[in-house]
Amino acid sequence: MTETTNQAASAAAEQVLAPVRRQARSDLAARGEPYVWIMGAALVFGLMMITGFLAFVFYFGAVTFWPQPIAVVETTDGKVIAGEAFRTETYKPSPEILQPKSTAVREQIAGNLGITERTLYRVGNYDLFGEDFVWVADFDLKVKTYPKDIYLIERMEWGPFIGRIKEIDLGGKKIANPSLAQLQAAHAAAELRRDVIDKVEKIEITDINREIERLRLTVKRAIIDYGANSPETKSIEADVAAKSAKLEAGYKVLGEKVSALRQTNEAFTVTLEAVNGQSKTQPLSLLVRFYPANNLDTAQKWSIYGARWLEFVSTQPREANTEGGILPAIVGTLTMMVLLSLAVAPFGVITALYLREYAKQGVFVSFIRICVNNLAGVPSIVYGVFGLGFFCYIVGGTVDQLFFPEVLPAPTFGTGGMLWASLTLALLTVPVVIVATEEALAAVPRSMREGSLACGASKWQTIARIVLPRAAPGIMTGLILAMARGAGEVAPLMIVGVVKLAPELPIDAVAPFVHLERSFMHLGFHIYDVGFQSRNSEAGRPMVFVTTLVLIGLVLILNAFAIYIRNRLKRAYKVGEF
Amino acid sequence: MSHELEGSPAAKRPASVVYQREKKTKASVLFTDAFAQYGITIGGMLVIIAVFTIMIFLIYVCLPLLNAGETTGTKSYKIETSAAQFVETQIDEQQTIFADLETDGHIKAFHLGTGTPLEVPSYDLSGLTASAFAATLRGDDILFGFPDGSVRAGRFELRSQVMASEGVPTDLRKLDARDSTDGKAVYSKIPGQFRKTSIEISLEPATQIAPVGTAILKADYRVGGTAERPLKTFVTLDAAGKLRLSQAYSEINMMTGEAATQLTTAEIPLQVPAADVVKLLLNTQGDRVLVTLRDGTIYRYNTRNFANPQLAETVKVISNGVELSAASYQNGENSIIVGGSDGSVAIWFGVDRQSKDTTDGIVLTKVHAEFEKQKAAITDIRVSQRTRMFTTSDRAGNVWVRHGTTERTLLTLPGSPDPTGLQATVFAPKDDGVLAIGKNGNVILWGIRVPHPETTLQSVFGKVWYEGYTEPVYVWQSTSGTDASEPKLSLIPLIFGTFKAAIYSLMLAIPIALMAAIYTSEFMKPSTRAVVKPVMELMATLPSVVVGFVAALVLSPIVESWIAAIVIAFGVIPLALITMSFLWQLLPTPIANLLDGLPKLLAFFATILGAVWVSRELGPLVETTFFDGDFKKWTSGAGSAQPFLFLLLIPASFVLVLVLTRPIYSAAYRLNLRELPKFMAAARELFGWFVILALSLGTAWGLSMLLGQLGLDARGGLVDTYVQRNALVAAFAIAFAEIPIIYTISEDALNAVPSYLRSGSLACGASKWQTTSRIVLPTAASGIFSAIMIGLGRAVGETMIVVMATGNTPLLDINIFNGLRTLSANINVELPEAVRDSTLYRTLFLCALVLFFMTFVINTIAELVRQRYRKRAAQL
Fold it and tell me: In the list A25, A431, B306, B548, which could disulfide-bond B801, CB 3.0-4.6 Å?
């Protein structure tokens, strides 16, 4: 376009010099505007995919725990249901469904190409109705109200109850239509007893059981070590018998204590009534949380929201993982990530040091580099297969035979577990760390090494004091990326040790504190399991969204941290270069 | 340190000795250095070796699959023989004893390890000698036929019973390390306990089948039904040539414990002399009777209608001049193994061909014939009770172990108890031994180990003709309900599924990722780029389980209800964008330049949203007008084929129209265009676009009418019956994982093109688009290629998304609306259930190995291309 200014000036000369002079207008075809649009749109599409995806997951993860109002819906055929509106979708009702409807309804739907909307209500009360969810089509809806006395009651079993609270029975003292405060007081007392039962059962009785099992294994071990009829074995057997008897006595006492508490709890009941008139009486101690869903102010809503999150991250799952918390999955994932980085860091760094600083550069080393790069692209499931065959069966099987013969044929290390899962993922991520470390090492200017060597430092001194500190942020980046990858991988873990439900955490207060042989739960697998393997995937779906939010949060934080370090590193180098 | 000294001549050195620092490094430094050197070298090498171990280990686990098997040892001894013929020989599961039943009802039992005879009960046949005998394939239900025309059924069972050490009699005679005997039963020591193996027999009263005095010459016997209500079926042939099918239905009275039996018999007309019949074969359901004749003819009777048996077909299963010398059902009672007097072996089974030649449409077909011939006539065929293995023994006393489906000779057992022929051969119930008894009383017990008889390279990668199929097929079906059906482990459907998922997803991912990369690298300000690129890379960090979950539980129902809208969106979005781009050209240059950047991105965004909205609104309309009101029903075959052909043909006819109108878009036209003011030129271009669009839509419509008339239909190929979790949904989800990878690597490649190339091109007057398409893209081509290869590698190995978003159905079907199963998903689904070292376990390792090699090759190509590219880029 700048040529236009010259146009007039050289107009005369043109006549002589060039009979056909190029016009200095912009050539639309050359600009390729349609191509630019398609390319730009592809980018926007990509950005929409990622942001849309994240927004979707964050939104659904964030709203899941927010207390929803409960609608009481009366349908045209006289049914009454109460529930939280779960989602709304458009659909095409089949002719059989529309057949009995009025002509007005049919005409209206036909006018809309046969499409209408329906809403899924989460009605709860699985023990009474046998279903958690009910679809109500728009044309079936007669009246929708939000009465203030409807409660949502979360329970230990059977999922939530939606209905009214008729009566509480405090060990014979009956209160009809109790106030919220009365209910809360009674519930708090019942909960206290439940906690005591839990503590006795889950800690004290478990301790005794574990001790008895340990004693039994001591005898088996003695038989293996000394022979069945040797004096050593006999004395150990006698000793164990005495100790076991004592433990059994303690067990009995605790058992009686628990059953007494249980009986008390059975006597404190609550009678709940669903909107269709069915009622159910059950112990107060089975309630987890209850609130009048349509009668909450914002502060109360926030407190319920917070309490639900707290429960989610700090308790064990219930009801086939579709309710309760994900504490074991969080602990399992974090423990695995720590073990993974402990395994991967030294090996990755040593290999990179070898390749970059010690090995003679040549065909062999570039061949190895290709292989390492290649291994980063090998599907994770292949590592899982290797982990199962090699770590669990061969290495683990050998370890069992050498160190745990008394437990056989039940495997200790000879099956999937925390250690093997971490090692498998370490193997999977070692190429990532090698590549990152190599790049970090290569980025340390040659001049610095030469300077150090010229000052008389030995090779190792140079590496340890000059190169590694400068490369450390790069190595850290690689390590964090490896951990993030480890947190997100599921496929290989399903083969080498992740399970649906592992109430025993891999880290606890029982010596040796870290239990490498235990199976564990993992956030990613939890998503798969609840979303795909549970009785009612619809009921588990809110749980999946929240777990997804936690997992994505974890991965994104790790990645953001890595990017932050990388950027800081870039800046540091800019200053450092001459 | 003094540096001046270093270069100075040696002669001068003594003079400055005083100032020179002692040239000695501390021992600790030297030690650390050496330690680090060796430590790191060894450590590095170890890690590299460890990484290569993966491949070696996978191969190591897979190799036994190809192993035919081995004999683990032989035992031989001699037992006492008698004149009576052995009719049935059995071994128990633990290989403790074997028992021979003779025609006179006498049972001889021996300890299998040593040949020590045991005292066991015998059948009391009231002095008669059986003229016919039949047993089920397991051998524990037996039937005697007598010369007087009666039959007696019974049980002949080797029973194992685990008991505590206290229950074992004290006066036992030691047989070998494991076993002792009290003369009647064998007691085997197992860890902590004993196992008693003994023989239990029972015999029912005689039933008169043939007229009194007409001998029963041949019989076969099966027991079906449940344990409480057994249904005993037997077929008998008497001396008069009468064939009878009988069914005894017993019901045990719950109150009294007595069995009430009802017997019904139907006569089957037979035209051949009884002496020619080699064997009668009956199946457990009792709906098929086969009569095999010496000349190789088989009469197949369909006895589904019990009262009225029908001769379904007559087949000759052996060539002329050869006698049929042995026949048996294969495990599962569908295939018949026939052995000829020339040592040949073949397998036949009924294939449902809807044939008119037979009364039930099923045709007995020679399916497996490529068996190695034995030197002498086949005299006996014994089948395994768990797999498709069987043994064939010949007249010279040789015993071979073969596998039916793979036609493989697994073992030719060494040695022979008697070169003149065998009295009996037995296949041990756990497939771990073969026992042969010679006519002279010599016995050989071969221990065999054939862990993977069903696997060959052919069975894994080739077509195999399985029972119940009309032709050889590729099929993966690892779990079989019963022992009688065999696992089918072809990797081809899985490899196909792998590529199906990869290719469909790449078809979505490559255009989006590449174009996005080009736009980012060439048309974007560096400041915007610094934001956009990390955001796109964020996509790569999302765990695939999350993507898979959203795809399967959220996306797939949406796709299902909006499928018509989605199908047309593929056309509407690009068309909307191109139209908008022509409209954009109408903007005066200064304004367009001003809006370049974020506003333009927003315009793209708005256009896409608008197009999506239009598609969503149009979807139901299109569905009603073109797809018979319901797209999913349409895919299953309802409605006309033409509208979809029209949609498919739009891109092709667009190209066609472009090519045809090229003469109009000549240089002259473009020069002419330059003459016009910008707005006019842009308007003309816009008009031209509408003309081209209309022309191509018209051409597509016309062509689709034409092809539709010719009977062409996309259904049955690319599109077919709609399944909720399908390749389309999976492709969307996998594309999600691929896009950031392809995007990042190709963006890097484009970015690495030296900027002076761009500057040069722009300085010569080329537009940005011309520079991009003619200078930058060709230079970066190899980098982009390697990006695509790495994307392919990722797609091939993607696991969780595929497990969740596809139906995991191992099909050979390119239909985009059907499910698939990839190698990785297959491993993930099946490995947790596979028993260690079983065939399935090793086959899954083979899947992993195949996957490993596929990605290794793909990644190596990518890496080599990338290295070449780097070198080239460095030279530029």
Answer: B548
Residue B745 sits in a domain whose CATH number is: 1.10.3720.10
Q: Using an 8 Å Cβ cutoff, are B85 and B454 in contact? A: no
Helices (H), B63-124: none
B 606-635 residues with CB below 8 A of A?
607-608, 620-621, 623-624, 629-630
Work out the pLDDT band at B345, boundaries 50, 70, 90. Answer: very high
**For residue A14, what are the domain limits?**
3-63
Q: pLDDT tens-digit profile of A223-259?
A: 777 777 778 888 888 888 888 888 888 888 888 888 8
Same structural domain, A204 and A335: no
Closest CA to A55 of B261, B554, B5: B554
- Say if residue B419 is preceded by a cis peptide, omega within 30 of 0: no
Strands (E), A35-114: 70-75, 80-91
ipTM: 0.84
Range 550-579 of B in CB contact (< 8 A) with A = 550, 552-554, 557, 561, 573-574, 577-578
With CB atoms and an 8 Å threshold, state whether B831 touches A388: yes
Which residue's entry shows tokens 């700048």? A2
Q: How many CB pairs under 8 A join A and B?
A: 346
In chain A, which residues have their Cβ closer than 8 Å to the Cβ of B788?
none
Q: List pLDDT tens digits, range A102-158.
A: 788 888 887 777 778 888 888 888 888 888 888 888 888 888 888 888 888 888 888
Per-residue pLDDT band at B604 (split at 50, 70, 90): very high
Chain B, residues 352-371, CB within 8 A of chain A, namely: none
Task: Verify that A130 and A237 share a domain, yes or no.
Answer: no
CB B379 within 8 A of CB B418: no
Question: Cβ–Cβ of B515/A38 closer than 8 Å?
Answer: yes
Total number of domains constituting chain A:
4
Mean pLDDT of B593-615: 90
Q: What is the pLDDT of residue B11?
A: 47
Going by C-alpha positions, the residue among B784, B803, B780, B781 that lies closest to residue B792 is B784
Within an 8 Å CB–CB cutoff, is residue B670 touching chain A? yes
* Chain B interface test: which of A27, A39, A360 (most B C-beta within 10 Å): A39
Min Cα distance B8 → chain A (Å) is: 17
Q: How distant is the Cα of A213 from the closest Cα of chain B, in angstroms?
A: 20
Residues of A with Cβ-Cβ distance to B824 under 8 angstroms: 379, 381, 491
Give me chain A's average pLDDT, please. 82
* Long-range CB pairs of A208-215, under 8 A, 24+ apart, other chains included: A208/A247, A208/A250, A208/A251, A208/A254, A209/A251, A210/A510, A211/A243, A211/A247, A212/A244, A212/A247, A212/A248, A215/A240, A215/A243, A215/A244, A215/A247
Q: Taking the model in full, what pTM does it have?
A: 0.87
Q: CATH number of the domain at A81, please.
A: 2.30.30
Q: How many separate domains does chain B show?
A: 1
Do residues A50 and A80 share a domain? no
Structural domain containing residue B510: 492-561+723-875
Q: Helix A180-199 vs helix A231-267: angle between axes, to the nearest 10 degrees? A: 170
Same domain, A453 and A412: yes
The CATH number given to whatever domain includes residue A569 is 1.10.3720.10
B791 within 8 A of B506, measured Cβ to Cβ = yes
Q: Report the relative pairing of strands B399-403 and A279-283 from DSSP bridges.
A: unpaired
pLDDT category of residue A181 using cuts at 50, 70 and 90? confident
pLDDT tens, position by position, B62-100: 999 888 888 888 888 888 777 667 788 888 888 888 888
In 3-state terms, what secondary structure has residue B202? strand
CB contact (8 A) between residue B546 and residue A527? yes
- Scanning the structure block, which residue is given the tokens 């007057």? B765
pLDDT (tens digit per residue) in A285-326: 888 888 888 888 899 999 999 999 999 988 888 877 778 888
Q: Closest residue of B to A533, CA-based?
A: B804
